[in-house]
Write a structure and sequence with these properties.
With 505 residues, this protein is of the alpha+beta class. The chain is 49% helix and 12% strand. It has three domains: 120 residues, Homeodomain-like (Arc Repressor Mutant, subunit A), CATH 1.10.10.60; 143 residues, no CATH class; 165 residues. A hairpin with a 2-residue loop joins strand 1 and strand 2.
């Protein structure tokens, strides 16, 4: 079980029970870990012990009530499990720096912030001050300027990358942002198609594997998708991999050389798991890094602090074992790959039923991945009664990732195929255009199925409620029904692309 599943479930669990005191001993036992291990892990990630965190969340939710309702302070205190007004006042002042009455009279606006994946709540720090991180104005975030000194260089104006409905795959999003900053107009759907990410569904049948969705599992060679992304942009590239002989000084020298020339650097890791992010600058000769990372605001990954621009700021990037590789963007070096080549690769990704990575890990693909996913959801022994919540979250993460591949990824593939169809129309290739549109319609159908699953009443609310819904056989039956339909549509897309390729020979 991944540690962040434990953190995700713990924070979700606490947030759904803020109206009562949390017994950390019972909490850790319900998660199947020792209390000492749970306390150490929680404190290392959140910066405070779980009991203090739970108290801060009760205060934050009470602050939300003070800010948004006319309820009395006494009623709010009792509602959030404080046995008397004095206890509430002392706790509130310690967390916010104000008494409840002063807080209300000051008309402090308390908004809702993301706590962890699937859990949101009022935004208060646990350090004794109110969390006031105003959203960075778009014009400030994107204003191009360079801050340079003897030991620092920061490139401002690189567009933010983060999880959003339009972009959920880090590498294509990060590459798109960097290329746009460098003046090259490259769109996300094109990069999703060219890297194969738009057409993937991967499933490790031997375990509940959070790496199923990883772009490094699209091809047998983990770096193949990165190579295809750079080539799709007509760019040269340089990789620096972390191994037993690579030092932090090697990494900082690589980063400084690129940033000093005005080029952002792509990296795996820095914050959170080994997913792609952007390094936009350095300070302290490279000991401090800044940039955009999909996980920078996720407390379960210890994201560091934020620069006024919105960039993450971290000094502990080398200590993160998931910091594995740097990628430099070179000059434009050649022609873009022909559409036929991208279509050929797309068909391979859609149809190949398994890939084996260099470490021997086997991920199923094509129709095999759909069958394995259906089998995993249909097997009640995967969801025994009384399963600890972190294990349910682990399974939920894998299922949500699969739905993301059938949703956001297929949407990108469909958009790119529609553009291909339009280009064929202009070239008077009517049959090719029709087949490209048919493939796009099939992928669009998969996206709609993913949306329908997301809209199920039992599935609509992320976090603990969705995890518990996954344990319900009747809910899983609905998921299986949708995935079976998606598999049929995926087969239809494969057949259309195969016929399309025949017309191009």
């Amino acid at each position: 079980m991944e540690y962040y599943c434990l953190m995700q479930s713990a924070i979700s669990y606490i947030e759904s029970r803020v109206r009562s005191e949390i017994d950390c001993g019972n909490l850790s036992r319900s998660f199947g870990v020792s209390e000492a291990h749970f306390r150490d892990l929680f404190a290392s990630q959140m910066g405070v012990p779980p009991g203090r965190y739970a108290l801060s969340r009760r205060v934050a939710n009470a602050a939300f009530e003070l800010s948004h309702t006319d309820r009395s302070v006494v009623d709010i205190a009792l509602d959030f499990g404080f046995d008397c007004p004095d206890t509430f006042t002392r706790a509130f002042k310690r967390e916010t720096g104000m008494t409840p009455s002063a807080f209300r009279s000051s008309r402090v606006v308390v908004g809702r912030v993301r706590l962890v994946a699937g859990a949101y709540g009022p935004g208060l720090k646990t350090t004794g001050t109110i969390l006031l991180i105003p959203p960075v104005p778009e014009e400030g975030m994107n204003k191009e300027r360079i801050e340079k000194s003897e030991d620092a260089c920061v490139l401002y104006g690189v567009k933010k990358v983060h999880y959003c409905p339009e972009e959920c795959t880090p590498f294509p999003a990060a590459l798109r942002s960097c290329l746009n900053y460098l003046g090259q107009d490259v769109r996300y759907p094109y990069l999703m198609a060219a890297t194969g990410a738009a057409f993937r569904l991967r499933w490790n049948a031997s375990s509940w594997d959070p790496g199923n969705i990883d772009i490094m599992n699209v091809f047998a060679d983990p770096e193949e998708a990165f190579v295809r992304g750079f080539r799709a942009a007509g760019r040269s590239f340089t990789f620096l991999r972390r191994d037993a002989y690579t030092t932090k000084e090697d990494f900082t020298a690589f980063i400084r050389a690129q940033i000093d020339q005005g080029r952002p650097v792509l990296a795996l890791g820095i914050i959170g798991p080994p997913e792609a992010c952007i390094i936009t600058g350095y300070r302290k000769n490279g000991n401090t890094l800044l940039g955009w990372n999909f996980f920078q605001e996720m407390s379960e990954f210890g994201g560091g602090s934020l620069d006024e621009s919105g960039y993450f700021v971290t000094d502990s990037w080398w200590e993160n074992p998931s910091t594995r590789m740097l990628m430099a963007i070179g000059t434009e070096c050649g022609e873009l790959p022909p559409v036929k080549d991208i279509l050929t690769d797309a068909l391979n990704v859609l149809e190949r039923e398994s890939i084996t990575n260099p470490d021997g890990c086997v991920h199923l693909g094509g129709q095999g991945a759909y069958r394995a996913l259906v089998s995993a959801l249909s097997d009640d022994t995967n969801f025994p009664i009384g399963m600890p919540l972190p294990q349910l979250f682990e399974r939920l993460m894998c299922v949500d990732d699969a739905l993301m591949m059938l949703g956001e990824a297929r949407a990108s593939g469909a958009l790119w195929l529609k553009e291909v169809a339009a280009a064929f129309e202009k070239s008077a290739k009517g049959e090719a255009a029709a087949l490209a549109r048919k493939a796009a319609q099939c992928l669009e159908g998969e996206r709609k199925i993913a949306e329908e699953i997301e809209a199920l009443p039992e599935w609509r609310e992320a976090g603990e409620k969705r995890a518990l819904a996954l344990a319900d056989p009747s809910v899983r039956k609905k998921l299986v029904s949708g995935i079976v339909k998606a598999a049929s549509l995926n087969q239809g897309a494969s057949e259309a692309i195969r016929k399309l390729l025949d017309t191009l020979r």
